[in-house]
TrEMBL record:
Keywords: DNA-binding. It comes from the Bacteria. This is DNA-binding transcriptional ArsR family regulator. SUPFAM superfamilies: Winged helix' DNA-binding domain. InterPro entries: ArsR-like_HTH, HTH_ArsR_DNA-bd_dom, WH-like_DNA-bd_sf, WH_DNA-bd_sf. PANTHER family: SLL0088 PROTEIN, TRANSCRIPTIONAL REGULATORY PROTEIN. GO terms for molecular function: DNA binding. It comes from Amycolatopsis viridis. The lineage of its organism: Bacteria, Bacillati, Actinomycetota, Actinomycetes, Pseudonocardiales. PROSITE patterns: HTH_ARSR_2 (PS50987).
Length: 112
């Protein structure tokens, strides 16, 4: 079960990072193509420092990886962490479907 593979703090960092629209947009962009923090900063109506902070939140959650290339810091996405988050949500969905099936079974028994 994925839930057992990740600690609560790690799960909290992933979903906290993904709770912000700007950070989700950054993840989408750097999954498509590696970008420098300067390139990312030009895309948003906020300061360079604010974009750096968003990237730092994503890096702490391992959703992106920063690498130095000369004077730039390049950012690329980490699809494995997104797959882990998707598996976790899939487990919640399976639990929910199991619960719905149980309710349906109880209701069908009452109809008989």
């Amino acid at each position: 079960m994925v839930v057992n593979q990740l600690g609560d703090a790690e799960i909290d960092r992933i979903f906290h990072a993904l709770s912000d629209a700007t950070r989700r947009d950054i993840v989408t962009r750097v999954l498509r193509q590696e970008e420098s923090i300067s390139q990312l900063a030009r895309r948003y109506e906020m300061s360079f420092a604010a974009v750096q902070k968003h990237v730092a939140v994503l890096a702490r959650a391992s959703l992106v990886v920063k690498q130095r290339s000369g004077r730039e810091r390049l950012v690329h996405g980490n699809p494995e962490v997104l797959r882990t988050a998707a598996r976790l949500l899939g487990e919640y969905e399976r639990i929910w479907h199991h619960r719905v099936r149980n309710i349906q079974d109880i209701l069908s028994e009452e109809d008989e």
